Please model this.
Amino acid sequence: MLKLNKYQDDEQMRKVLGTLLRVGVLTSASVVILGAILFFIQHPGETIDFRIFRSEPSRLRHVHTILIEAMQLKGRSVIQFGLLLLIATPVARVLFSLIGFIIERDNIYIFITSIVLVILCSSLFSGYLVF
Model:
């Protein structure tokens, strides 16, 4: 097995995390664009008035409903799913960083990254997102 030095490990970790962020954002953007196309196909006559804010239907505030309706290719739900992917991308980055620090046994960064992960998760789960 090839043994890498500390600099090579750090560089490899940065590349993996950079790729994770790029893939996450590009996947999310692609899903949102697909959802927008589906929405315009499914609602051809609907006009959009940007002067009045209209929130999404309350059913689209539940992850399980978003997933079920996205699999049915409902435009609004596909857009919401793309936004969930966008939210999940930095959380995944922090989680992968934590795993990397655990492997390296870097206790200070394990502690700091754990705090960041707890803050991210607590802010996500205390909002309107219901699982």
User: Anything to note?
Assistant: The mean pLDDT is 85. The chain has one domain: 24-125. The radius of gyration is 19 Å. Helices lie at 6-42, 63-71, 75-104, 107-125.
